[in-house]
Automatic annotation (TrEMBL):
Belongs to the Nudix hydrolase family. NudJ subfamily. This is Phosphatase NudJ. Residues 4-137 form the Nudix hydrolase domain. Its EC number is 3.6.1.-. Monomer. It is an enzyme of class 3 (hydrolase).
Length: 162
């Protein structure tokens, strides 16, 4: 059977407080970049669970998603490795909660609050073009209810194949 093409599913949190957006500064194969708290969907979790987990791991903040801002599809080819990946990313806005005293994920240098103008000024350092587009869509008021997302209970089941 030939290989089946599969996009990498990711999530991202657009977190705004007092006109500032919570971003992470991270080490990547392309150098140090800015991104929203974001990451891959893990087995046995919903999209909402993934964005809560990723936000906690990358910023040490609780996050409660309240709406879906957008779904973004992009293709990335690493200039360094030639690695070709298509990403399908689900971006959420919501409420930021408590901040914990815990280490951040490997590769995350710091969590930083930035204004829209600061974000625009460093767009050459964004992890992807979606970083700014997510904020623009958020500021434009794009919101879809979380009820549009359905996770079948089978997702949470662990199947023993051994």
């Amino acid at each position: 059977m030939p290989d089946v093409w599969k996009p990498s599913v990711t999530v991202a949190a657009i977190i705004e407080r007092d006109g500032l957006f919570l971003l992470v500064e991270e080490e990547t194969s392309e150098g140090i970049r800015f991104n929203q708290p974001a990451g891959h969907l893990d087995p046995h979790e919903s999209l909402e669970q993934a964005v809560v987990r990723e936000t906690l791991e990358e910023t040490a903040h609780d996050f409660t998603p309240t709406a879906l801002v957008g779904m973004y599809m992009s293709r990335y080819v690493s200039a360094r490795t030639g690695h070709d990946v298509t990403y399908l990313s689900f971006s959420f806005c919501g409420e930021v909660g408590a901040k914990y005293d815990q280490p951040l994920d490997a590769g995350i240098l710091r969590a930083v609050w930035m204004s829209y103008d600061e974000l625009v000024a460093c767009k050459d350092k964004h992890r992807s073009p979606s970083v700014l587009q997510r904020v623009i869509d958020y500021l434009d008021g794009k919101r879809a209810p979380l009820s549009l997302l359905q996770t079948d209970p089978s997702v949470y089941e662990v199947i023993n194949n051994g």
